Every structure is written in structure tokens, then in C-alpha cells.
């Protein structure tokens, strides 16, 4: 089962809505991979014993893990936190999220600075590269249980846009220049 992603219609409607363009413009896994976004579909019902998850963690050095339940009943100041997650930002490290239950949206910027909405659902593991502009929101289900993975101690520092001089952003944009020159 492949993940669903599409170019977003930018408007001021509820951020939890799909925001499809009319007509809908879907984005392929190949297009996401060109942006550095990685994806796996795993078995969330048995994540403690999942050999594929273990292999991903070992290969990429993800030695820290925690679980996060996001819903109005479990998060203090839920609406405020959701707005904070939805502020466009980058991180100095990869962002790794594995959806164990529920669903939500990661939005990432493409090479033309357009928003691509990625709908993660149960079983989806997504890795966003360091330096990519992105944001997160729940969908209308208002519930997601995520596994967060890190290399070493977790760092949750978000650097809000603009961050063109941040080392991770410079490395990210330089990787695109190399890809373009290779073609």
C-alpha cells in the first residue's frame, strides 16, 4: 500500500481538511524521493517485534524511541499545540515518524516552493530529511499515535522559516543543486 500525497490548494480553510486542488494533482513516491522523503509501510500491530523496523533502526542509527498520542483528550492546550506543529519549519536532523494508529498530514515544500500534503495512516513510516521545510497537522479524525525515532538524544528544536542560512538548510538545498547538475 503506497502513501497518498498531492499538491495542496492553499486557502484559509481548516488545516485538518485535505486541501486538494481541483482537479486533484497527486504526487508520486518517486517525486517524494527526489525531495529526500523516505517511506516504508510496516505492521503497526507488532512494532515491538517487527524485523523490518529493527533493520531500519539499525541501518540508520535510530537508537532512541518514544510514543506520542495526539488528540484533544490527551494533549494539554491541544489547539495551540496543533497550530505550533503547523508552523513552517526545519530541523537540523531528520524527522522520523511511524504512525501506529490514526492519521495526519505532513506538508513539505517542493522545489518550486509549493506545498505537498502527505497523508500518513496506520503503518506508514516517513523520514523527512534535515533542512526540508515542513509542517504537521492532524486530519479530521483528530487522533494519531506516533513513534518518534532519533539518532542519540532526542532534539525537538524547530527553526521557523526563513532559515536559508541554517547549515541543515544549506546542505539540503546543495543536494538539489547536485541532483540537477547530474541530469
Oligomer state equals: single chain
Count of discrete alpha- or pi-helical segments spanning 4 or more residues: 4
In CATH terms, what is the fold-level topology? Jelly Rolls
What is the H-and-E element order? EHEHEHEEEEEEEH
How many strand elements?
Answer: 10
How much strand content do the residues show? 25-35%
Structural category is alpha+beta
The chain-level mean pLDDT equals 93
Binding site for Ni(2+): 89, 91, 95, 134
Family: Belongs to the acireductone dioxygenase (ARD) family.
Subcellular location: Cell membrane; Cytoplasm; Nucleus
Binding site for Fe(2+): 89, 91, 95, 134
Structure commentary:
The protein has 183 residues and is α+β, with helices and mostly antiparallel strands. The protein has one domain: Jelly Rolls (Sandwich). Helix content is 22%, strand content 32%. It has helices spanning 29-34, 51-60, 78-85, 167-182, and strands at 4-7, 38-41, 64-70, 89-90, 95-109, 115-121, 124-128, 134-138, 144-150, 159-160. Strands 1, 2, 3, 5, 6, 7, 8 and 9 form an 8-stranded antiparallel sheet that branches. A hairpin with a 5-residue loop joins strand 5 (95-109) and strand 6. The longest helix is centred in the C-terminal third of the chain and has 16 residues, at 167-182. It is globular. The relative contact order is 0.23. The model has no long low-confidence stretch (mean pLDDT 93). Keywords: Amino-acid biosynthesis, Cytoplasm, Dioxygenase, Iron, Metal-binding, Methionine biosynthesis, Nickel, Nucleus, Oxidoreductase.
